Amino acid sequence: MRVFVAIEISEEEILKKIQTFQKNVGIDAKPTKIDQIHFTLEFLGEIDQIKYEKVKDVMEKISFSSFNISLKGVGVFPNLKNPRVIWIGVDKNGAEKLISIANEVGIKLTVLGFEKEKKFKPHLTVFRVKKKINDISSIMKEYETVEFGVQTISKIKVKRSVLSPKGPEYSDLLEVNAK
Q1: Is 153 left (phi over 0), alpha (psi -120 to 50) or beta?
Q2: Handedness of CA 47, 113, 64, 121 (dihedral sign)
Q3: How far is Cα 125 from Cα 39, in angstroms, rounded to an integer?
Q4: Which residues constitute the domain of residue 108?
Q5: Cα separations (Å) of 148 from 11, 90, 127, 160?
Q6: Are 14 and 149 in contact (CB under 8 A)?
Q7: Using CA atoms in the order 18, 20, 24, 27, what is the torsion angle rounded to 10 degrees?
Q8: DSSP-H helix ranges across 60-175
Q9: Residue 100 has what DSSP assignment?
Q10: 69: which strand partners?
Q11: Given CB 3.0 to 4.6 Å as the disulfide criterion, which of 11, 19, 143, 154 pairs with 178?
């Protein structure tokens, strides 16, 4: 099974604002389904049930306190001339806390043979760009300071991803709540 560790966005007001942004921005790209908006803390790839049980044991020992993040601004990976991903950012304080959790998850999972992913940059993917699009600098400039709202982070999920022609389908395998 294809597995990743994530923090989901569940605040309805934020999801509505993201959806409005996706509708109004006018970019020729595939929007992320609104019920799939999340931070990927660690992508584990294909693992079997035995490996998953070990992941579950490690994840159940992760301890964190709930905290708030403010979602604001937009950006792209890798750059404005050739965007592949369009994302929403996080305030500095929230980003530091997300990075701290991602680092803890990454370090704990290396014990099971997973390689720590490259440096985690907190972002919510809201579009994937499949084909070359025009320069979107002016559009991004227009939205660089937009505020999407505040989300309380109180759970981490281990999720399964099944790829299909319609896009990925996600399901929850495990939920780790803040202590």
Answers
A1: beta
A2: negative
A3: 8
A4: 2-177
A5: 10, 10, 16, 27
A6: yes
A7: 30
A8: 92-110, 137-143
A9: H
A10: 151
A11: 154
Q: Which residues are catalytic?
A: 38, 123
145-176 pLDDT per residue, tens? 999 999 999 999 999 999 998 889 999 999 99
Q: What is the pLDDT of residues 19-40, one digit of tens each?
A: 999 999 988 899 999 999 999 9
Site of tokens 């001339």: 81
Reported as half-sphere exposure (CB side, CA atoms, 13 A), residue 1 has a value of 18
* Residue 109: C-alpha distances to residues 29, 38, 46, 104, 141 (Å): 33, 20, 14, 9, 38
Number of compact structural domains in the chain = 1
> Domain with 9 in it: what CATH number?
3.90.1140.10
Give the C-alpha separation, 18 to 168, whole Å.
Answer: 19
What the block records as the tokens of 52 is 């998953």
d(CA 127, CA 85): 6
pLDDT at 135: 79
DSSP letter for each residue of 45-68:
EE--HHHHHHHHHHHTT-----EE
